[in-house]
Amino acid sequence: MKIFTIGFTKKTAKQFFLNLKKAGVKCVIDARLNNTSQLAGFTKKEDLKFFLQEICNIDYLHLPNLAPTKIILETYKNTKNWKLYEEQFINLMTSRQIETLDPKIINNSCLLCSEETPEFCHRRLVAEYLYAKWEQVEIQHL
């Protein structure tokens, strides 16, 4: 099983869509809590769904249960305490039992959020959580 991750910040539309296409992604799984913000540019929900299908023949699925809660996000924004954020988000994923997702949905899919790199991003935590729960998972950050 392969799980890709990508963030859209500081990427042009060309870079973003070519990265997904070259990797062979079958579905983009939107792991953002808010996917309709004007700040999302070409990755606003309906626009992204259209572009993915038209440009890359890639499916789109919004799974907000893979996103942190507003409270967790606001706490991190106020404290910049990554360790606390990580702990709270891992506890949230555990309580939500995200490992019960159908692996067929996740395989060859790409977890999407806004962060430019995966180091301080929840998409990495989701991928690593599933890696720990499932067998034979490979993670590739685009």
Automatic annotation (TrEMBL):
Pfam family, one: DUF488
Lineage: superkingdom: Bacteria
Name this polypeptide is given: DUF488 domain-containing protein
Organism encoding this protein: Thioflexithrix psekupsensis
